[in-house]
Amino acid sequence: MLVRLLYASRAATPMNEHEFGAILKSSREHNQAEGITGLLCHNEGVFIQLLEGGRNAVNARYKEIIDDARHKDVILLSYSEIAEREFAGWAMGHVQLSRLNRAMVLKYSETGKLDPYAMSGKALTGLFHELVSAGAIACS
Ligand code: FAD
After folding, report:
1. Rounded to 5 degrees, what are φ and ψ at 71?
2. Residue of the CA atom closest to atom 4 of ligand 1
3. Phi and psi of 10, rounded to 5°?
4. Which of 47, 51, 46, 73 is nearest to 62 (CA)?
5. For residue range 45-75, what is the model confidence (pLDDT) as tens digits?
6. What is the DSSP pairing of strand 37-43 with strand 71-82?
7. Which atom of ligand 1 is nearest to the CA of 51?
8. What's the pTM value of the predicted model, to 2 decimals?
9. For a designed S-S bond to 9, which of 36, 72, 74, 117 qualifies (C-beta 3.0 to 4.6 A apart)?
Protein backbone atom coordinates (compact mmCIF):
# COMPACT_ATOMS: atom_id res chain seq x y z
CA MET A 1 0.00 0.00 0.00
CA LEU A 2 1.74 3.15 -1.23
CA VAL A 3 0.78 6.73 -0.38
CA ARG A 4 1.93 10.20 -1.39
CA LEU A 5 1.89 13.03 1.14
CA LEU A 6 2.58 16.70 0.49
CA TYR A 7 2.86 19.36 3.17
CA ALA A 8 4.26 22.84 3.68
CA SER A 9 5.62 24.60 6.76
CA ARG A 10 7.52 27.67 7.91
CA ALA A 11 10.98 27.60 9.48
CA ALA A 12 10.69 28.41 13.20
CA THR A 13 13.78 30.63 12.94
CA PRO A 14 15.85 31.66 9.91
CA MET A 15 17.73 28.58 8.71
CA ASN A 16 21.15 28.63 7.08
CA GLU A 17 22.43 26.20 4.44
CA HIS A 18 24.31 24.16 7.00
CA GLU A 19 21.17 23.58 9.09
CA PHE A 20 19.14 22.75 6.01
CA GLY A 21 21.91 20.38 4.87
CA ALA A 22 21.71 18.56 8.22
CA ILE A 23 17.97 17.97 7.72
CA LEU A 24 18.57 16.65 4.21
CA LYS A 25 21.34 14.35 5.42
CA SER A 26 19.36 12.77 8.24
CA SER A 27 16.27 12.59 5.98
CA ARG A 28 18.19 10.62 3.37
CA GLU A 29 19.55 8.21 5.96
CA HIS A 30 16.17 7.54 7.59
CA ASN A 31 14.15 7.54 4.39
CA GLN A 32 16.37 5.07 2.59
CA ALA A 33 16.05 2.65 5.50
CA GLU A 34 12.26 3.06 5.51
CA GLY A 35 11.67 2.93 1.74
CA ILE A 36 10.53 6.56 1.68
CA THR A 37 11.32 8.70 -1.36
CA GLY A 38 10.50 12.30 -2.22
CA LEU A 39 11.53 15.91 -2.56
CA LEU A 40 12.24 18.76 -0.16
CA CYS A 41 12.23 22.43 -1.07
CA HIS A 42 13.31 25.35 1.16
CA ASN A 43 12.65 28.89 -0.01
CA GLU A 44 12.44 32.13 1.95
CA GLY A 45 11.75 30.35 5.22
CA VAL A 46 9.12 28.04 3.76
CA PHE A 47 9.44 24.27 3.33
CA ILE A 48 7.52 22.14 0.86
CA GLN A 49 8.02 18.40 1.11
CA LEU A 50 6.62 15.47 -0.82
CA LEU A 51 6.90 11.98 0.67
CA GLU A 52 6.10 8.68 -1.06
CA GLY A 53 6.26 5.21 0.43
CA GLY A 54 4.41 2.63 2.46
CA ARG A 55 1.41 4.04 4.32
CA ASN A 56 2.69 3.13 7.78
CA ALA A 57 6.20 4.40 7.08
CA VAL A 58 5.03 7.72 5.61
CA ASN A 59 2.43 8.30 8.36
CA ALA A 60 4.98 7.63 11.10
CA ARG A 61 7.62 9.83 9.49
CA TYR A 62 5.15 12.66 8.96
CA LYS A 63 4.22 12.54 12.64
CA GLU A 64 7.94 12.86 13.57
CA ILE A 65 8.35 15.73 11.12
CA ILE A 66 5.31 17.60 12.48
CA ASP A 67 6.79 17.37 15.99
CA ASP A 68 10.11 18.87 14.85
CA ALA A 69 10.63 22.23 16.56
CA ARG A 70 12.67 23.55 13.63
CA HIS A 71 9.47 24.39 11.76
CA LYS A 72 5.88 25.48 12.44
CA ASP A 73 2.53 26.13 10.71
CA VAL A 74 2.61 22.67 9.13
CA ILE A 75 -0.21 22.35 6.61
CA LEU A 76 -1.16 19.08 4.93
CA LEU A 77 -1.71 19.87 1.26
CA SER A 78 -2.42 16.45 -0.16
CA TYR A 79 -2.58 12.81 0.91
CA SER A 80 -3.47 10.03 -1.49
CA GLU A 81 -3.13 6.34 -2.10
CA ILE A 82 -1.04 5.73 -5.19
CA ALA A 83 -0.48 2.74 -7.46
CA GLU A 84 3.12 3.69 -8.19
CA ARG A 85 5.71 6.23 -7.09
CA GLU A 86 6.30 9.24 -9.28
CA PHE A 87 9.34 10.49 -7.39
CA ALA A 88 11.13 7.20 -6.81
CA GLY A 89 14.62 8.38 -7.68
CA TRP A 90 15.39 10.28 -4.48
CA ALA A 91 15.68 9.23 -0.83
CA MET A 92 15.10 12.98 -0.43
CA GLY A 93 15.83 15.11 -3.48
CA HIS A 94 16.70 18.75 -2.94
CA VAL A 95 14.66 21.05 -5.16
CA GLN A 96 17.09 23.64 -6.51
CA LEU A 97 15.11 26.81 -6.76
CA SER A 98 17.72 28.54 -8.88
CA ARG A 99 16.16 26.55 -11.73
CA LEU A 100 12.72 27.87 -10.90
CA ASN A 101 11.49 30.80 -12.95
CA ARG A 102 8.43 32.99 -12.55
CA ALA A 103 6.77 31.65 -15.71
CA MET A 104 7.03 28.10 -14.38
CA VAL A 105 5.41 29.08 -11.06
CA LEU A 106 2.80 31.24 -12.79
CA LYS A 107 1.63 28.19 -14.71
CA TYR A 108 0.54 26.66 -11.37
CA SER A 109 -0.34 29.71 -9.25
CA GLU A 110 -2.32 32.92 -9.23
CA THR A 111 0.59 35.33 -8.89
CA GLY A 112 3.80 33.62 -9.99
CA LYS A 113 5.01 33.62 -6.37
CA LEU A 114 5.90 30.29 -4.80
CA ASP A 115 3.51 30.35 -1.84
CA PRO A 116 2.31 26.86 -0.86
CA TYR A 117 -0.24 28.37 1.53
CA ALA A 118 -2.00 29.85 -1.52
CA MET A 119 -1.58 26.86 -3.87
CA SER A 120 -3.29 23.51 -4.13
CA GLY A 121 -1.52 20.21 -3.53
CA LYS A 122 -2.31 19.28 -7.12
CA ALA A 123 -0.65 22.42 -8.48
CA LEU A 124 2.45 21.94 -6.33
CA THR A 125 2.77 18.30 -7.39
CA GLY A 126 2.56 19.49 -11.02
CA LEU A 127 5.28 22.04 -10.34
CA PHE A 128 7.50 19.37 -8.77
CA HIS A 129 7.03 17.22 -11.89
CA GLU A 130 8.12 20.14 -14.03
CA LEU A 131 11.19 20.72 -11.86
CA VAL A 132 12.13 17.06 -12.18
CA SER A 133 11.83 17.34 -15.98
CA ALA A 134 14.00 20.47 -15.88
CA GLY A 135 16.71 18.55 -14.00
CA ALA A 136 16.34 20.77 -10.97
CA ILE A 137 16.59 18.07 -8.32
CA ALA A 138 19.87 17.36 -6.54
CA CYS A 139 20.53 14.27 -4.50
CA SER A 140 23.67 15.30 -2.63
P1 FAD B 1 17.59 13.49 15.89
O2 FAD B 1 17.95 13.98 14.52
O3 FAD B 1 18.72 13.19 16.83
O4 FAD B 1 16.58 14.51 16.53
C5 FAD B 1 16.02 14.28 17.83
C6 FAD B 1 15.01 15.36 18.11
O7 FAD B 1 15.63 16.64 18.14
C8 FAD B 1 13.94 15.41 17.03
O9 FAD B 1 12.71 15.62 17.66
C10 FAD B 1 14.30 16.58 16.20
O11 FAD B 1 13.10 17.16 15.75
C12 FAD B 1 15.05 17.47 17.15
N13 FAD B 1 16.19 18.18 16.53
C14 FAD B 1 17.21 17.64 15.86
N15 FAD B 1 18.08 18.57 15.46
C16 FAD B 1 17.59 19.75 15.88
C17 FAD B 1 18.02 21.09 15.79
N18 FAD B 1 19.15 21.43 15.16
N19 FAD B 1 17.26 22.05 16.34
C20 FAD B 1 16.12 21.74 16.97
N21 FAD B 1 15.66 20.49 17.12
C22 FAD B 1 16.38 19.51 16.58
N23 FAD B 1 13.43 13.30 8.86
C24 FAD B 1 13.39 12.19 8.10
O25 FAD B 1 13.79 11.14 8.57
N26 FAD B 1 12.88 12.23 6.83
C27 FAD B 1 12.44 13.37 6.26
O28 FAD B 1 12.04 13.35 5.10
C29 FAD B 1 12.48 14.57 7.04
N30 FAD B 1 12.07 15.74 6.54
C31 FAD B 1 12.10 16.85 7.31
C32 FAD B 1 11.66 18.07 6.80
C33 FAD B 1 11.68 19.22 7.58
C34 FAD B 1 11.19 20.51 6.98
C35 FAD B 1 12.17 19.17 8.89
C36 FAD B 1 12.19 20.42 9.73
C37 FAD B 1 12.61 17.99 9.42
C38 FAD B 1 12.61 16.82 8.65
N39 FAD B 1 13.07 15.60 9.15
C40 FAD B 1 13.00 14.48 8.36
C41 FAD B 1 13.64 15.49 10.49
C42 FAD B 1 12.61 14.93 11.45
O43 FAD B 1 11.69 15.94 11.77
C44 FAD B 1 13.28 14.45 12.74
O45 FAD B 1 14.30 15.34 13.14
C46 FAD B 1 13.93 13.15 12.53
O47 FAD B 1 13.02 12.23 12.02
C48 FAD B 1 14.42 12.64 13.90
O49 FAD B 1 15.65 12.05 13.66
P50 FAD B 1 16.40 11.23 14.79
O51 FAD B 1 15.47 10.22 15.38
O52 FAD B 1 17.70 10.72 14.21
O53 FAD B 1 16.67 12.24 15.90
Report:
1. -140, 170
2. 68
3. -115, 140
4. 51
5. 999 999 999 999 999 999 999 999 999 999 9
6. unpaired
7. 28
8. 0.93
9. 74
